[in-house]
Request: fold
Amino acid sequence: MVLREDLPVWQKLNVTAFLTSGVVAQFPDIIGEPYRDRADNLYNPLSIQPVIVLSADHAALGAIHRRALERGVTTSLYVEEMFSTGFDAANRAVFAEFAPEDAKVVGIALRAGKKVVDKITKGARMHA
Reply:
């Protein structure tokens, strides 16, 4: 996952949650078994893989987006204009107004082989 570095914390958290749900929807097999505590309370299952959160500036995010498309890797993508909407249909409508060359990407998430992901996310760094 790569987030635009200049987002306020609340937006970083919001985008992370949305992007994660997209990856889980594409790869439901990454969800493990439910958790159970000693008192036998049941909790939701979690991802069996760690999520690595990187950061990048606007230009690097655009390059990452283009590289993912060039390699045919399906991503979860969040554009800046989605912050101004209040529901899913409005998110889809505003998302559809942009193409890769003019999208103001604030977050992108993907799952692929490590070498492919490393090539796609070149220019991003560990999130501080």
Remarks:
- The CA atoms of residues 94 and 127 lie 27 Å apart.
